[in-house]
Amino acid sequence: MYTLKGYLHDKALFLLIGLVALLLIDGALTTSAFPVEAITFVSIVFLGAMVLTLAYDHQHRRRFYNELMRSSSQLPKGYLVADVLDIPDFTEGRLAYEALAKAGKDMADEVATYRLAANAHRDYVEAWVHEVKTPLAAATLIVENGIGGIDPSVRADLTAELERIDGYVEQALYFARSTDVSNDYLIKRVDLLDIVHAALRRNARLLIAAGFTPVIALQDTIVYADSKWMGFILGQVIANAVRYRQSGSRTPGACDDGGHSIEFSSHAVETGRDVREVVLQVHDDGVGIAAGDLPRVFDKGFTGDNGRVRAKSTGMGLFLCKTLCDAMGVGIAATSEPGAGTVISFTFPQSGYHTGVLEKGPFPHEEKHCQ
Question: What is the pLDDT of residues 247-261, one digit of tens each?
Answer without folding.
Answer: 654 444 444 445 788
